[in-house]
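Recap for those who missed Tuesday's class. We walked through two folding examples back to back. For each one, the amino acid string is listed first and its predicted structure tokens come directly after. Nothing is annotated here on purpose, so try labeling regions yourself before you check the end of the notes.
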Amino acid sequence: MYRIEEYDRSADCKTLILSPDLFHEALAEDPKSGRRFHVKIKSGDDFDIVYYDNNDDLEPLDSYPKYQKPPFMASYRVYDENDTQTLWMGFFDGVTNMVFEELNEYTIVLTKLVLRETDIDVYCTDERILYFVPGQERLHVVKDLPKDLDPDSLLTIQKELASGIEDGTFRTLSSTYAFHNVFVLQWILNGRDLSHFRFITVDISDWAGIGAILSYVARYQIAFSRFGLKFVHIGNGYLGKYRTEELTKFFALDLEDAEADEENTLVVPSFMALSKTRFLKGIPHSIDQSVLTDRFKAEMDEYYDGLFGEEKVLGVMIRGTDYVTSGMTGDRVMASAQQMEPLIREWVSKYGFDRVFLATEDADALAYMHQAFGHLVVALSQERLKKSDLKQNEIISDYEKEHADGMYEEKLEDTTINYFYALYMLSRCDSFISSGRCNGSDIVLSFNNGHFSHFYKFAVGLEKTS
């Protein structure tokens, strides 16, 4: 991204003439971070543009899981703000006003775009925007950004990254993320023509569990259908760490198409960059029970009914060892069993639950809950690990492969179905408490479809009572 800076007479750099293609001309010069251009204009003060790597305009890099390696953001050396067919204008749905704190390449491009394609009013404090966008009724150059705009319909583009990414609102975010949300398909196309493609695929890493797979496959299908592209999976018989053949025994996944090939299928360069968009993450709880095969659903219903009958059950999910080893930070940190106990105890007493159904892969959490609640706790039998068994910075799947005596390899039924039984059974409980934000809790909420009497999600703090 190019930022606008004061003209530096001491800098020995190339001079460009202000034009509608200014930034494209500069990008064609193969810019490197810190590279400067003088910009000469006919009327007004000359200025400089300086290139900054987009990967520097992110959250602190230590907030990313340890198994993810940079870069985490597209460079956007090639894009076309006039090709509206490949822009995701849905990013601006519900927005009536846009404000930005810094004049730069991306806020200039977005201003031009919203003034041309929407009814949004734009506010800024830098008069140099008029060099790029002639005065218009909906462009307001003001001394101070207004404080009285409706926050529910306001898009705020901040000078530095603050919020609006992980919380799902995407209404307060940096220039880089705002631009990326609109130009996401162009990043994937990388200068190619959309009409040449019918399908799209995203690499699903071999560490992905069943919760992540089901959640993201559904999101991919919805997101890319906006551009007429069908999501397919190309993975030599594997999806995440499971064989596709095994997955389709239990889940109704439309993963393949005989007509998809390398010529007509787009490949998303980076899941991490894609995940930073409302284009994908703004699709809430995007799966339902139709993802289950009839036989699998009937089997799980029979198990739940046989175990609990008409008892009133509180479902509790406690994530632990897998989240420790994957290095999750921020609002992905899970609450511990000890932190959750007071609320569980309060709800058991207040709402009169007969049982507490516990889903956890953490052996310590299971032991603590048995000690705290005794016979009330019911949990499925499954392989569980202790935090003390784990090596620092080690990913959970590596540990499992080393210690599970071969059970882990290619056997979905042995390693995952008990876990998925737990998710489904949680969705059938009267109420639900989750230790934090994860794909598993999203699946539980999706399957339940708003019927929990009460639910609480630690860390994020989402609560519903009725």
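Example two. Treat it independently of the first, because the proteins are unrelated.
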Amino acid sequence: MIREFQKIYSRRTSTGLLFAAVFFSVLLSAFFIHDYTYEVTEEDGTVYVQGRKGVWAERRAMEKIPTELCEENLNASLYDYRRLVKSEKTDKANRAFDKKYPGWRILFEYAYIPEHKVDDTLLQKLQHADDFYKNIPVQLYENMKGYDGQRYSRAEKKRACQMLAKVKKPYQFEFLGQWTILLKVSYLCFYLFLLYAVFLAGQVFSCENECGMDLILLPCGKKTMYRIAYQKIAGTALYLTIALFACTAVQAAVVFACCGISGAGSSIQMLWQFFFCLYPMEVWQFFLYSYAAAWAGILCIAAVSAFFNAWTKNKFFSIMLAVLFLSVPFAADSLPAARESAVWQRLMLLHPMTAVNPLSYGRSLRTFSVGGVVLRSGDMVLLLCIFLFAAAFFLAPRVYWKRMR
């Protein structure tokens, strides 16, 4: 395996792409930090603070309010709002509330208003927030009625409500701007790594055929060829693992160095658009989970691409097949019939590409029952990626040997 890893790493293209990936990680992190915007409401209008200044301005504002969303703190915020609305109009009271309690008004809207409706007077109508957590499953069930085009069965709705009810409460809510930035950076880099994995693994077996080495290796026998094939896939997986770890470490270092570290112990439900997330995790736990899922997805795609290469013995044809395999979800989403089919929606969610998209499975309300065990979307995709990797890892050497003969 080490010998095959050294072959991959010693190539100028592979080394250049690795440095390019690290540089791109730094560049992308800097871009999203610069693009970060914090809205500050002043008497004469809204002021937009961008970049690192915006990050720290919002962080200082959130440090002044409670981090625990217990009923007592929620009710105290509503009391402050009622005092504001007595002296100001609704719009001004909302802006003043947003300035004092950044992000809290959105949480109230998630808990009490369905996503397809809008009500700017919600805080005026609320007398208390004692039923804040009891009302979340109600809104979850309402959001699963198909307004967004998704189709859910009764069993799925029931399982989703049960899983959300198991999330630890009260929620912890600290400043999470740096985690949002890191999520966006990782999301884009994971997709680039997918393409890199296809390019790299799509030529691991065809190189001998292109230079005539297969005629020399053929007399070595079946066992030797199997061992070489296993080492090729393992060496590719090791190289991708090291490259992915290096880029992830660089991204985290840049983002946390510029924006500070806070909110790691917050509930993942407090992250951007994750309010109904079914994972009973803290932010740092979900990020580790997302990196593990992306790693499994990338290695899965690499193994499948290597299998195609062992079968075709042509790097261009195998890369083309792998790209077609990756593009199926995007092509299917353009078909009206596929969008309306609950079965097709579930199948597309289980595509290995979903593993590199934490925004997809993290916000997904779909669940799967396997042998009496209920799995969330990410769990199911992770399980399938491991299965596909094992299958491709097992079959590729056999196909490689047969095609060589």
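Answers for example two:
The first helix runs from residue 2 to 10.
DSSP finds 19 helices and four strands in the chain.
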